[in-house]
What does this fold into?
Amino acid sequence: MEKQTITFADQEIANRLAGRNHFLKDVEKLIAWKRINKILDKVEIRRMSVAGRDAFSAEVMFRIMLIQSWYKLSDYQMEEQLFYNNMFLWFCHLSLENPVPDHSTICRWRNRFSEKGIYEKLLQELNYQLSKHNIKISGGVIVDATLVESHARPRKREIIETEPVGDDEIPGQTTFQATELTVEESKDPDARWLKKGKKSIYGYKGHTVVDKEHGLVQSIAVTPGNVFDGHMLKPLVESLELPEETEVLADKGYCSQENEDALKEKKLVSKIMRKKKKNQEMAPETRDFNHAISTQRYRVERSFGSLKRHFGWSRSIYMGLQKTADYLLMGAIAFNLKRSLKILRV
It folds into this structure.
């Protein structure tokens, strides 16, 4: 049960932790929880009977989900940690003398958050709060996409017929060669195949906007893996209230007249890398323009690297588009908070 009164045991824990520096204590000071609770209030279950109310609040469950993202804990592992990890109990406002949420409770609340579409609102609110610490979009944003493998492990064999190139058809003989190929059988109806280089990946794309200076995630749109990057620039930009004259950086995959017009309409500065004209060498000014943009795009790659290594963006642990999108959003929230503390220490 969520802590309502401070017991002697809780006070002893607080005394032991009082002089200790810890990441979770820094987060506690950074977040304005009253504003967060205004969003989380939409997730709370209203019951007429006091006896039938849920034992835990949405804030407690959000705190638990943050810890899971930072420490890579499953629902079962989180349940176990809450039995003996005093710092986790303190951060989650739970008492030693009362029951803690079990794995099924954590899972049920996560689904409740997803049904109410709360994760995106939490990301926007926390980014707003960070802007009050002067960690905000200043000058520009970078748009890019990264592949996220599906949780599914499908597998089956297919016979692929390959048509020869440049050979004339021989009457009475086949001009096709049969090749046996092992592919993966989809168990995730929303995921799609995409070949990147020599590797084929079955999963999703996380289309992402980060700020140019710090690399913090500002907006995410998750699609099946076969959706073209260039089609997602406009909805991503429209999801943010960017000041006029903000630069929007992107690679050549976003180069199109439609995207240029969309940025112009919102009075944003296009820094989309340009393609060379067909059968012509790239003009020196275009090469210089692209080089200037490429030297700044490393920040989004750095963010993707951290999100994949530490926050689960390399492979989803859930099936389906919505659950994968919520998983990536939760990872982005946790990443932004942890990254912001490092920025503030500089």
User: Anything to note?
Assistant: The chain has a mean pLDDT of 88.
